[in-house]
Amino acid sequence: MENGKLGHGFTLWFTGLSGAGKTTVSEIVEKELRGRIGNVEVLDGDIVRTNLSKGLGFSRADRDTNVLRIGFVAKILARNGVAVIVSAISPYKEARDQVRRDIGEDFIEVFVSCPVEVCAERDVKGLYKKALAGEIQGFTGVSDPYEPPAAPELTLKTDEEEPEESARRVIAKLEELGYLEPVEKLNQAS
Ligand SMILES: Nc1ncnc2c1ncn2[C@@H]1O[C@H](COP(=O)(O)OP(=O)(O)OP(=O)(O)O)[C@@H](O)[C@H]1O
Ligand SMILES: [Mg+2]
């Protein structure tokens, strides 16, 4: 474990299907980070689309613009020492990789993996039902592509582990990468 990253800002980027658990896991991680380091900021796709990306739709171009905007904000926050948590479907690999290149190191991609059938079963927002009925066009995983990361720093399988366990693995990864001081016994219950 190297120590050079302590106090560094970073971008923790959760990508995955709607309902995979990005927001759920990131909220637990956020709470943990707020208890351990000073500056934490969250950019959640649902909120970003009501302000920063208001007016953008779900074409590939608009989705990519959304991702690049989020990436830009994450970059300028993280370079000022902020721990940035992004939760966005971000379905296209090319746009995510562009953000990775722009941000450089300190970009940590977390693939929130969950079979589309399980996401559709959860149907947190009732959108899968509509998408499967053809009432929503271009819905990721149903009628629009999702391109999984080729080499994410971490993969969470939310159909196989509880949210707390997923969050614990994210924190452990941040410790392993040197962004967080390891705290033994932390959340070891799971
Ligand atoms: N291991 C798990 N990790 C995360 N969520 C889980 C897990 N197991 C079950 N769930 C449930 O799955 C749902 C995930 O919904 P959530 O809103 O977090 O997804 P999301 O990826 O943010 O979707 P969207 O892209 O639509 O915002 C929640 O209802 C959560 O309780
Ligand atoms: Mg969400």
Bound molecules: adenosine-5'-triphosphate, magnesium ion
Straight-line distance between termini: 23 Å
Helix content: 40-55%
The whole-angstrom Rg is 16 Å
Major beta sheet summary: 5 strands, parallel
The residue-averaged pLDDT reads 95
Short description:
The protein has 190 residues and is α/β, with parallel strands linked by helices.
Index terms:
alpha/beta, 7 helices, five-stranded parallel beta sheet, binds magnesium ion, 190 residues, binds adenosine-5'-triphosphate
Structure description:
By secondary structure, the protein is α/β, with parallel strands linked by helices. The protein is 41% helix and 14% strand. It contains seven helices and five strands; from the N terminus they run E-H-E-H-H-E-H-E-H-H-E-H. The protein has a five-stranded parallel sheet, sandwiched between helices. 37% of the residues are buried. The mean pLDDT is 95.
